[in-house]
TrEMBL record:
Organism: Pikeienuella piscinae
Bilayer topology: Lipid-anchor
Keyword terms, alphabetized: Cell membrane, Lipoprotein, Membrane, Signal
UniProt family annotation: Belongs to the BMP lipoprotein family.
Principal location class: membrane
Transmembrane segments annotated in the record for this chain: none
Gene Ontology CC: plasma membrane
Cited SUPFAM superfamilies: Periplasmic binding protein-like I
Compartments in which it is found: Cell membrane
Presence of the UniProt keyword Lipoprotein in the record: yes
Protein name from the UniProt record: BMP family ABC transporter substrate-binding protein
Length: 334
């Protein structure tokens, strides 16, 4: 057999091995409140799941949580149905996934926005949202004409204060005299899916002079974006690229690459390369970034783009160290 035939045979064998591994996997995902089409966090995960299915042809079992009591039930049901790798979406599933993972030690699990579980069969993903939000603060300060910008969070929890803290740092580093208004939507999971309240909070900030408003509020953020667009102001999206939700009125979006975490989880499992432990993704790891496309190209001046890219490069190099809310449960600037 000549070298060409040997190479072809090797490729066929490798392809067959990959297909065999993919055939052995039975993946599942449990989306959280808001559902996989929330145009934000859950939908970012769905994008990664869809990419995996499109590439491998492997269907992914899924469930969309609509009440808090469903989380543990859904995870357990997936394990009982023979899922080999189960992805939980969001910190709210931490207790449930820890319990179910202990009941099914031979099943692989992964969870996004959780880094504190002690379990041998769980991969955990954390993100440096403060770094991505810092870039949004730079953009907001550069774009604002009033020197007043806003932030609307979803549920009032440390994670969202982590977003807010990075944003304020970016604003103040760019324009120290600028004012930042901050509001949280609520203290229960319902705060993630209340567009009407998001619009109300955004309007209250605009009434006080804010002309750029960043949200980290899941489905509630849809209301923030609509209100800003209706008022002729600018919004900043989060998690997924939300620039297209109101072209010309979304300055940019903070990309939290939960799609990468989802895709990587299932791809590694399919290849037999799944490893547990904690993975934290920041700017240097490509875990957070900003969005530039046809929907916001006219809003991003060369000066704004240069400022964002400079800040990003300095964060990656370590020249800029963005303080974490988690370190002291407070923000050094406000």
């Amino acid at each position: 057999m000549n070298l060409v035939k040997l190479a072809a045979a090797a490729l066929v064998a490798a392809g067959g091995a990959t297909a065999a591994l993919a055939a052995d996997i039975k993946p599942a995902v449990v989306y959280d409140m808001g559902g996989k089409f929330d145009k934000s966090f859950n939908e970012g995960v769905y994008t990664g799941v869809k990419k995996f299915t499109n590439e491998t042809g492997v269907a992914v079992m899924e469930f969309e949580v609509t009440s808090e009591t469903q989380r543990e039930q859904a995870l357990r049901r997936m394990a009982e149905r023979g899922a080999t790798i189960i992805l939980g979406v969001g910190f709210a599933q931490a207790d449930a996934i820890a319990k179910v993972a202990a009941e099914f030690p031979d099943t692989e699990f992964a969870i996004i926005d959780v880094t504190w579980l002690d379990a041998p069969n769980i991969r955990q993903y954390g993100f440096k949202e403060n770094e991505g939000s810092y870039l949004m603060g730079v953009a907001a300060a550069m774009a604002s004409k009033t020197g007043k910008v806003g932030f609307v969070g979803g549920m009032d929890i440390p994670l969202i204060r982590h977003f807010a803290c990075g944003y304020v740092q970016g604003v103040k580093a760019t324009k120290p005299g600028d004012e930042v208004f901050q509001n949280m939507t609520g203290s229960t999971p319902a705060a993630w899916n209340d567009p009407a309240k998001g619009a109300e909070l955004a309007q209250s900030q605009m009434d006080r002079g804010a002309d750029v408003i960043y949200h980290a509020a899941g489905g509630t953020g849809v209301g923030v974006i609509r209100a800003a667009a209706d008022a002729g102001k600018l919004a900043i999206g989060v998690d997924s690229n939300q620039n297209g939700m109101a072209p010309g009125h979304v300055l940019t979006s903070m990309l939290k690459r939960v799609d990468v975490a989802a895709y990587e989880t299932f791809k590694d499992a399919a290849a037999g390369e799944f490893e547990t432990g904690v993975r934290v993704l920041g700017a240097a790891e490509g875990g957070v970034d900003w969005a530039l496309d046809d929907n916001n190209a006219e809003l991003i001046t060369p000066e704004i783009k240069a400022a964002i890219e400079e800040a990003k490069a300095k964060i990656i190099s370590g020249e800029i160290k963005v303080a974490s809310y988690y370190d002291t449960e407070s923000c050094p600037v406000n």
